[in-house]
Every structure is written in structure tokens, then in C-alpha cells.
Amino acid sequence: VGDASYTVTKHAAVAFAEHAVDNGAETVVIAYGDYGPVKVSAVDFGAATARALGADNVVELAFPITTTDFLPVMTAAKEADPDAIIMVVADTACAPSMHRSTRARCGRPRG
């Protein structure tokens, strides 16, 4: 696990999962680019952390690492009615995924 290729995303996935569950998330979607180190970070570290901390439902949602249209990804994430969506992406996928999540209104306040 000391491989530098996923050390940063591993820690980010853990930190985001901890933050989500610590703030009351019971259903967490972890969407990730389906690429070795990113998948390991998202599933083996992020999803595992959310489950270990008590999230009732953790949905793992893989998408091709070359994805440029994130509407299908965010639509699938939103259909799970999550309390938190964690995106684990790399390189050129970062900006478009964040833009799409904003446009899909996935950040609705919980009441």
C-alpha cells in the first residue's frame, strides 16, 4: 500500500468518507474512475471506511476513467438518494465531474 500512485487518493477517499459519516451520512455513494489505483482508493479505502464507521448503505459506482460526460454517473448516484456523494477521479476527469455534480443539483440540503 505504499505505492505513491494512489497514496494521495487513498487518503482523500478515507478523509471524505470519515467526513460524510461523521456528519450523519447513512447512505454514501462512492463514484470512481475504473482504473487500478483509483478503484483501490475508492473501494478498499473509501467505501471500507464508510462501512466501518457505520454507514448503512454504501453504493460503489464505477465509470470509465476516460469519461467526459458525467450526467449518467451523477444520475445513477442521485438515484440512490444518498446523504453524500464522494467522487474519486484522477487527471482530466476532475473538473468535468465536479461541474456535472453542480449542474445535476446533487448537493441538495437535507432536512
Main features:
111 residues; alpha/beta
3D architecture notes:
- The chain is of the alpha/beta class.
- 50% of the residues lie in helices and 17% in strands.
- It has four helices and three strands.
- The chain has a three-stranded parallel β-sheet with strand order 2-1-3, with helices on both faces.
- Helix 2 (36-52) links the parallel strand 1 (27-33) and strand 2 (57-63).
- It is globular.
- The model is unreliable at 1-6 (pLDDT under 50).
Sequence-ordered SSE layout with sheet pairings:
Layout: H1 4-22, E1 27-33, H2 36-52, E2 57-63, H3 71-79, E3 84-88, H4 94-103
Parallel strand pairs: 1-2, 1-3
Helix pairs in contact: 1-2
Query: Hey, roughly how much beta strand do the residues contain?
Result: 15-25%
Kindly report how far apart the N and C termini lie.
39 Å
Mean pLDDT: 82
Count of runs of 4 or more consecutive helical residues? 4
Gyration radius, rounded: 13 Å
As residue ranges, the low-confidence spans are 1-6
Assign a percent range to the helix content: 40-55%
- Order of secondary-structure elements: HEHEHEH
Count the E strands: 3
**Main sheet: strand order:** 2-1-3
Structural class: alpha/beta
Shape: globular
